[in-house]
Amino acid sequence: MVKQMNSIYSVDVFCEVIDNFGDAGVSWRLARALSSRGLSVRLWINDLSCLQRLRPSVDERLIEQVIDGFQVIAWNDHAEMNYQPADLVIEAFACRLSDAMLVRMAEAKPTIAWINLEYLSAESWAMQSHGLPSPHPRLPLTQYFFFPGFISASGGLLREDGLVQARAAFDTESRSIFLKNLGCDVAPESLLISLFCYEQAPVHELFNAMRLGRPTLCLVPEGIATKALANFLGNDVSVGRQVTDGQLTIKIIPFLNPDDFDRLLWSCDVNFVRGEDSLVRAHWAQQPFVWQLYQQAEESHLIKLAAFLDIHCLDLKEESANAVKTFWQAWNGEAGAILDWSTFSKALPELVRHYRQWSAHVASVDELSTQLIRFAGKIR
To answer: What is the pLDDT of residues 229-269, one digit of tens each?
Structure first.
């Protein structure tokens, strides 16, 4: 735990769920991280059912409850009526507070720190906008943009204290016990894959390629991309369902809580992740991963993907860099890109080393919640 800095003792984190588990997951992790640093934290979220899927102890019927050391509030009109702002107010992913809440923030003494926590991006404009002020047009309030990122000019990534040490302590025996508890029997020569993707991912094409490759076990959490799995699993996508086709075995596993999801990523040879929360966790897993972005209008997500690939593949040999870029682009639906699993999997020996080095590089950037507290103290 660190001392509170510059009179920041309390925090409100607001989350409007759009990308399902991603928005809720990032906001929950942020609230937990800020709470662990000695701050009084309230997480305001408009979809308790989504959070309940991640944290089963959440009671969807309650307006207010305490989970994981911080307060969770069902964000609705009724909850807003008597709002008293915290020292630091964070709007996650550009959600919007009501005019009445903004008025109360403007009236607060001493002044509050107001931050718009933006989506994770490697685009140059995001780094140039990091920390910039945005005065309210009518009220004596100034909001500041805060961009997570992968370089020192950014706000960094969420990483709880002790995570790197926990990952290092997760050895072969720990992996074996974890997989056994999931009901997974992994042959020594098999490639172990985790698949967490959106419905539009070209899953059928990927599985067809895996059928013809080396022995592969693909683990899919319950309820994820069930329509995309239908060609291989039929209508039965219940937990424990397992199908083998050629060299590929697909197994449905339970939907995991966030800490067990980390262990899944640590256990697998390749992790397919989606959105923002699981992407960040894939970084700390130190294993090769493939990222599917949340699809945006006019394919602007492909611009975001290209910006990340430019910095992510910078230290790779040209052949491996091309394998990664082409495969990721095809996985994200870019026209003309080929989902060449054979070439990508052949690059894995080099990619294993690369992803460990990349993880260490990103971990050298100051962690996001620490930077947030420091920044809020400066602007308050």
So the answer is: 887 888 888 999 999 999 999 999 999 999 999 999 999 99
pLDDT digits (tens, 9 = 90+) for 80-110: 888 999 999 999 987 999 999 999 999 999 8
What are phi and psi for residue 150, nearest 5 degrees? -110, 0
| CATH number for position 210 | 3.40.50
Q: Judge whether 99 counts as a catalytic residue.
A: no
Q: What integer is the mean pLDDT of 109-125?
A: 95
Range of the domain at 183: 163-363
Q: Active-site residue among 23, 47, 87, 91?
A: 23
Q: Tell whether 124 and 180 lie within a shared domain.
A: no
Give the pLDDT of residue 19.
62
DSSP labels, 325-365: HHHHHHHTT-TT----HHHHHHTHHHHHHHHHHHHHHHHTS
Residue 208: other Cβ atoms inside 10 A: 17
Helix 21-36 and helix 258-267, axial crossing angle in degrees, nearest 10: 100
Catalytic residue among 12, 87, 262, 276: 276
Please answer whether residues 42 and 11 qualify as being in contact, where contact means their C-beta atoms are separated by less than 8 angstroms. Answer: yes
Number of domains in the chain: 2
Whether residues 130 and 61 share a domain: the answer is yes
Q: Is 276 a catalytic residue?
A: yes
Residue 193 falls inside a structural domain: yes
The answer to the question of residue 5 being in a domain is no
* Whether 67 and 190 share a structural domain: no
State the alpha helices, DSSP H only, in the chain.
21-36, 48-54, 77-80, 99-107, 124-129, 163-169, 172-181, 203-211, 226-233, 258-267, 277-285, 300-312, 318-331, 341-346, 348-363, 368-379
pLDDT at 3: 44
